[in-house]
Amino acid sequence: MQFEYSIEGGNFSRAGYASSEVKKKLKQLNVDLQVIKRVVVALYEAEVNVVAHAYNGRMEVEIDKDKIKLALVDSGPGIPDIDKAMEEGYSTATPEVREMGFGAGMGLPNIKKNVDVLTINSVVGKGTTVQMITYI
Amino acid sequence: MKLQEIANKIDGRVITATNNGSMTYDMAFASDLMSDVLTLQNDNMVLITGLATLQTIRTAEMADINCIIFVRNKKVTAEMVKLASDSGIDIIECRYSMFRTSGLLFQSGLKPVY
Ligand SMILES: Nc1ncnc2c1ncn2[C@@H]1O[C@H](COP(=O)(O)OP(=O)(O)OP(=O)(O)O)[C@@H](O)[C@H]1O
Ligand SMILES: [Mg+2]
User: Domain A2-135 is of which CATH architecture?
Assistant: First the structure.
């Protein structure tokens, strides 16, 4: 099963909509609740990152019998130093983003904890792709 | 503790109650940082927060948190109430500070997450 959602940068009132839809689908498919929680927490953090740090993007979802493959592909400023971005507490979030309760620099490390495989590709000035795989 | 018992302890007002407020809670966590909340492993706990945005409800939904207490007299919007009801999330509004709310509920037996 494969589907896709578009994500608008800067639009916090919609942030999480796509993750919420994926959560509903996974529940319908009777995926284990602990797995669902880990997957959607990671997905939501990645979705919020597109809203908070990029201009626009899309979420690609692929659900098989043995794995859930998720990708967030955005057009945005990109990440100059991915290792630094992965550190707990590192954040370049704007005051607007912090007002929404984000910008603690915990998102990427938390994504890493919650999925089996995390791959980040980024080109400065172009955009970022965050791919997450969870085996079920 | 039941929803209404929690509300009574902090002189709060129940805004949404799932299944007639029949859920019971025994743990709580207080934070205004959503990505902090998203690191918690526990389910079925109370989130005490001063951040009243739609993202607070979304975060609770994603983290399987079933009850939010908005402190410091923060008011929830109609949109937040709708999303909370759809997601089965209980909401209490309370005028006390985060510290006072947490203290009162700790004293009443709600356990910290860690
Ligand atoms: N999609 C993205 N595009 C550009 N930069 C990004 C993107 N995702 C993350 N970053 C960069 O990596 C940093 C760390 O991301 P991370 O998700 O860990 O923290 P945060 O988003 O700043 O705060 P939090 O996730 O705790 O709310 C961000 O502050 C930003 O500089
Ligand atoms: Mg983030």
Answer: 2-Layer Sandwich (3.30)
